[in-house]
Amino acid sequence: MYILIGLVSLLLLWRIVSIYSHKRRAKQLSIELSEREGKKAVQEILDTLPDIYSVKNNVLLIDNRGNTVEFDHIVLSPQGIYLIETKNTKGWIKGSVQQKKWVQHLYGKECRIWNPLLESQYHMRFFKKFCKRIGKKIHVNMKTIPIYSIVVFAHDECKMKQFIPNVLYLKNLKEEMIRGEGNNYLQDSISAKVIQEIEASNLLIDTKVNRRKIRFYKAKKHFLYMIRILILTIVFYATFLIEGAIELIGSF
Question: Structure pTM?
Fold first, then answer.
C-alpha cells in the first residue's frame, strides 16, 4: 500500500517539476531573445571602434575545474582589456553596487532583478585567472595590463535612478572605450597573442576539441543531475517506509 502511494506521489511530483521546468524554459527563452538583441546593438557600436581595437563577441571560457563563464564582449585596446556585460532591461532601475538585487519599475509594476555588477565582478575575477594562465604560456606579465569590467544597458527605455560606477547606457559606450586613448598598456604584438589565446579557448567556436569538451561537461552535468534525482527518490521512499514502519509498530 505504501509503495503504491509512494509511486503515485512520485509521479505527481515528477509532473509538477516538468510543468515548472517548461514554464521556466519558456521564460528563459524570452529573456535570451531580448539579450540577443541587446548584444547585437552593443556589437554594432564596437564595430565602429578604430582598427587598434580588437573585439571578440560571445566568448565562453573554461577553467581547470570545469567552471565556465560566457563573456558578451571582450575588447582589447591600448588602454587595457574591457569585459562588457550587456543587459537589455527596460524600465526604471534602482540599486547600489553591493546590493544583491536591484529594483525594476516597469509598466506600473515593481520586481527584483539580479545586480549585474556582481556578475560582472565575478567575470573579471575569472578572466584574471585566465590571463594568469595564458601569460605563462605567451611569456607576458598580464598583471601589468589593466582590466575593466563594464555593464551596458542597451535598451532605449532603460533609465537608472542614480549614477552607478561602471554602468553605462549604450549611447555612452563608445565614449567610454576611447576615453583613455593615449595610454599604451597593451601593445599590438601582445594584443595579437592574447586574442589568439582567447580564440583558441573559446568553446563557442566549433572545433573538434571544443566539441569533445562540451560533450564531456554536458555528460558530467547530466550525471550530477541524475544523481540528485536518485538521492531525492531514495529519500522519498525512505520517508514512506519509515512512516509505514512506525505505524505498523504502533498498531501492535
Answer: 0.73
